[in-house]
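User: Good morning. I'm curious how flavin-adenine dinucleotide would be positioned relative to this chain. Could you predict the structure with it bound?
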Amino acid sequence: MEIINDKNCSWINDLNLRTNIKVLNFKEECDWLIIGAGYTGLSAARKLGQLHPTKNIIIIDAQLAGEGASGRNSGYLVDTTLNDGFTSNKELENYKKKVDVYKLGIECVKKFIKEYQVDCDWNECGKYFASSKYEDKKVLKDFSKTLLKLGFENHLLSNSDLSKKLGTNFYNVGLYTKGGILLHPSKLVRAMIDTLPKNVQLFENSSLLNWKKNNDIIHCKFKHGSIFSKKIIFATNGFLKSLGIKANYNFPLTLTASMTRTLTDEEFKSIGEPKEWGVLPVRPMGATIRMTKDRRILIRNTAEIYSPLKMSQSALDKRSIKQKMGIKKRFPQLSSDIIQSTWSGIVSRTRNSSQIFQKIDDNIFVAGCYNGSGIGVGTLFGEQIAIKASNEHTKEIEIIEARNKVTWLPPQPFLNLGVKTRLIYERFIAKSEI
Ligand SMILES: Cc1cc2nc3c(=O)[nH]c(=O)nc-3n(C[C@H](O)[C@H](O)[C@H](O)COP(=O)(O)OP(=O)(O)OC[C@H]3O[C@@H](n4cnc5c(N)ncnc54)[C@H](O)[C@@H]3O)c2cc1C
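Assistant: Good morning! Here's the predicted structure, ligand included:
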């Protein structure tokens, strides 16, 4: 199994190239092994390093650390979400459990950036849920009532309010929620790499090929080496299924996003010089679109079943055209050739939108499946799974474990067939919003 990501992602390319990359090409032994170096794995490594300063801890990734979904997402640290179809009061209790976890996630990232003085373009500017369809007002009104019941400040917005804030006339109804943060995802994950504790070794470009447990020791085989560990944490998110972890409970989805170059002064003036903002769609397959603080526009309007290992440049080019159209429809005054980069990334989905946070066997733990809210929840789950694996307990673990457990998925080919059908339907009802 080899993960080959495109090198296009603007967020990643904003940063300096890393040096001193260590590849595993020998036999190693350790007390703790973490597979996957995104927000989850790096947060687990940080916490384990703090809890066990004398132990030997290894974190390892198939590609460069932080260059999976963690370095290439849209940068919304969310306090609430609408995109999994929640709209009524019936499930208020479940929804509360979900947002309780989001709240802990935000606190966890906030604590990390404060403690390590991280600059990740943190902006507590809230976020918008918006649609061009007037009929979506009902969904937003219901959602607004639910949020008010749970104490989340929010305001319904009209076309003219939205066009003043966003610089586009496209949206007719919207809901602004005050909580929620926009940030630079790659700067955040880079900081997690740079601040790994001294007793944590990082290996990169070293893919786990297979693993087994023998007499309480976990034996992991990589392309050019192997590791024997007493305990292991799987933090591979969209790749859990391909490693056979909770394989009947999660599946990968491939997302693609594009980013424009920085708008010129003239272009920026033509859209009313808005402050940084982020819009999430009301219909699940609609576009996520964001104006960055340095005047670039990011758009993400695809989600599909695709090989999680690689997307070819020609496939990316096709998706880039969709993203160009998405920008054009919202900002017709901007020229058509402003997209600078298009990239793909892998997320993990579960059937009921719950996450996985579990001991799956003695000394074997897993955390993942954030359904698009992995910045906060991944950071939180990484830290808390390390605590759980150290046989300690926290109020955070209690809140995480109070959520519904993930539900079983049908085997292939029924799974792909079901997901594809659902995505086609969602795409159809969101077609004006893409
Ligand atoms: C385009 C896009 C937009 C998104 N937007 C948002 C957003 O706005 N807000 C939000 O909260 N979330 C968003 N997400 C989701 C978010 O990025 C993820 O939930 C989060 O990054 C998950 O972090 P993680 O550390 O669990 O997984 P990842 O960052 O995916 O890390 C897993 C790592 O495991 C490694 N790995 C896999 N298999 C192996 C193996 N066999 N051996 C060794 N290593 C392996 C991978 O290389 C990878 O680096 C988005 C995702 C994408 C792709």
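The mean pLDDT is 95. The chain is about 30% helix and 25% strand.
Let me know if you'd like a different ligand tried.
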